[in-house]
Amino acid sequence: MIDLEKNYSINARRMKKSVIRELLKLTAKPEIISFAGGLPAPETFPIDELDDICSSVLKEYGARALQYGPTEGIDLLKDQLIEWAKRDNVSITRENILITVASQQGLDLISKIFIDPSDPIIVGLPTYLGGLSAFNTYGAHLVGVKVDENGMNIDKLEIKLKELRKKEEHYKFVYVVPDFQNPTGTTMTIDRRKKLIELSKEFDFLILEDSPYRELRFEGEEPESMLSLDNIGNVMSLHTFSKIFAPGFRLGWVIAEPAIIDKLVVAKQSADLCTPPFTQFIVYEYMKRGLLEKNIKSTIEVYKKKKNLMIKYLDKYLPKHDEISWTNPEGGLFLWVKLPKKIDTEKMFEEAIKENVAYIIGSAFDAYSKSRNCIRLNFSYAKEELFEEGLKRLGKVIEKNL
User: Fold this and answer.
1) Edge-to-edge, what's the strand order for the sheet holding 252-255?
2) Which tens digits make up the pLDDT trace of 109-152?
């Protein structure tokens, strides 16, 4: 057989397996209580409604639903998304929307059309692993900016931007997850959002707003989205039905200026030609019947209860230590635990698996592979009756590593 490594493209050689997907293989045993993956709660899936809607779609749309569709997505679903955006005081047209195979495809397509090898792409420290993976594949030079309890630190961002400008580096965009950030669960304050918009004008860069969890707020006041604050077209916004409806549909959408959408359409045509019309018709019908908002409300109640359970048992079972703390998110699916710096959560992971409990290592979300003393916990997926035992096991493992 030929030497494959020699023949792979540069992009292929940059690709790495998802750390999370690899770790999740180790958590597949039924006896393991997993707070690892970012899975929605199965009890929130609207199975009964979908049983009826799938049949209705086949009867009403038939061959249209089973045929190829336009690359941009079907207009019926786009029109529902235009109305949905109005909830956020965002006014868009069909030309501002591209339907994607979930938001991860949006991350890949945006990387494809904007990133040249060695381009500085500014990301949070820490930030979503899927974003880091997409940017790395296209050869980006990742520049990290600290994320604290109020989101990305915009003062530190401004310092980085000035440093890059002096070096004449051509930074393309800043990537943020402003609402219930993955992995920390923190939300960017309105003042920081406004400052970020102003910096995008001053330093001439785009903002990539990743917004998979915004609708899942169960406490506190909702700050305006980056998209709603933008008045010059500098914001590209990613959305998905995976966290607010069902991930199995693999449907998401990008909102951006028409010129950007046009270029994304061309990139998408070389990837998959079109997003499946059948799933689009199902989601269109679901939204048209007013069921999405109803389902989100019930999902919020489930997640609020689970988050409170996690906070309760973290407080009860994690060792009392000055260097141990965790975030208390007002929505979303995750929270972030900081442990003493001497603890390496990657090494500790093997011990956790032996104790039949799982988390995701902090370094997976760090552009510089640091945050090794941190872990991400998911509170949406595990059954409520498993929280106490799972966090008791986690506390035991941490205690041993102290």
Assistant:
1) 97-100, 252-255, 235-240, 206-210, 173-176, 120-125, 141-148, 151-152
2) 999 999 999 999 999 999 999 999 999 999 999 999 999 999 99
Q: List pLDDT tens digits, range 350-378.
A: 999 999 999 999 999 999 989 999 999 99
Residues 363, 38: Cα–Cα separation, whole Å: 16
Could you give the C-alpha distances from 297 to 185, 236, 294, 384, in angstroms and in order? Answer: 19, 26, 5, 19
125, 145 contact by CB (below 8 A): yes
CA distance 2 to 51: 49
> Omega of the bond prior to 46 within 30 degrees of 0, cis?
no
For residue 175, the model assigns a pLDDT of 98
Task: With 0.85 as the threshold, say if the pTM is over it.
Answer: yes
Domains and CATH numbers, the chain: 4-46+294-401 (3.90.1150.10), 68-290 (3.40.640.10)
